[in-house]
Description:
By secondary structure, this protein is of the alpha/beta class. Helix content is about 35%, strand content about 20%. Strands 4, 5, 7, 8, 9, 10, 11, 12, 14 and 15 form a 10-stranded mixed β-sheet that branches. Strands 1-2-3 form a 3-stranded antiparallel β-sheet.
Amino acid sequence: MSKIERVEVFVASPGRTFVTLRITTDDGVTGLGDATLNGRELAVASYLRDHLVPLLIGKDPARIEDMWQYLYRGAYWRRGPVTMTAIAAVDTALWDIKGKTAGLPVYQLLGGHSRDGVLVYSHASGTDVPSLLDDVQRYLELGYKAVRAQAAVPDVGGTYGVRKGKVYEPAATELPDEQPWDTEAYLGFAPTYLEAVRERFGFGFHLLHDVHHRLTPIEAARFGKSVEACRLFWMEDPTPAENQEAFRLIRQHTTTPIAVGEVMNSIWDVQHLITEQLIDYVRTTVVHAGGITHLRRIFDLAALYQVRTGSHGATDLSPVSMAAAVHLDISVPNFGIQEHMGHPDEAAEVFRTGVTFADGMLHPSEEPGLGVEYDEKAAERFPYQQRYLPVARRLDGSVHDW
Ligand code: EZ4
Ligand code: CO
């Protein structure tokens, strides 16, 4: 039996912050896990360094399921983003090790190909409608078969999802940027630019939109109804999902498909959304929902209820997470779509990934394990930088869901 000999936690900011776990066995096999929780990175790094590393040393890296149960049940305290991201990092690293030990890419351990490639969507945005349309055109020319569209609400600003640099990065300031929010202005404007996109480019590609938790259930119902003619692939996070029951009301009013789950961390957080068929796509991820082991459990539950997968894949999910996502996406029967935003250029100096993009799809590496390498020497050139996600305030100054 091989043993876990060394466990390292790296925190670096190559263009943005990533927390990376590396587990090394006594026979020299290494595995990587992503532990990045945007804006709360050091809490997960501490959970790993201070609480999990001592539990891992000397353990059998082959017992992935047992390790998951040990870390989850053994904590006594359950769920939550910090715990589940830390467990995810360990789980992902152990799958990487198992693949390398078996000489197989991780997707082969998960049952092999269920499809030829992983359909992805990218993010088009604009400060106004013409610049959004130019951006949609750019992504279609790059070969994307699915595009998310977001534009800044005129005169209000603060709209979610509008890119400033090369890659959309909401965690861009040392302390939270406080941004204004006006629901009525958004509800009046957003349908008009989604219609403009369909008018200009037609229906030969999938169009998505992220509401980013900003609406009440009845407002979300109104929004979904008002964009039905655009035939969206989905409207994402129309209302905050702590109250899963809230989605029943939205469902009763609109046929616009619904995607939820990027901030959810466990099967229990999405249980009723899935079993009561209140959503169409579940967006939980490897990194924030307990690793490959737990995410596969969520996806299997979803399959029973004709809910498909649509995992989060923003810049704050490292190349390690993205590789793990692609291995899972290519193998599960109920895959829907995968978000794909890419990373700042500096990230490529630290992470070498075998994931490739062609014809609107991602393809996993054929290397054993996840197919990602971490260059810790290069990472030293990018010391940790404190960054927070923004906070939204309504026009009367009260805090809103960002
Ligand atoms: O705001 O990942 O669909 N994608 C998103 C993201 C999230 C960030 C938060 O860290 O909503 O851009
Ligand atoms: Co989102």
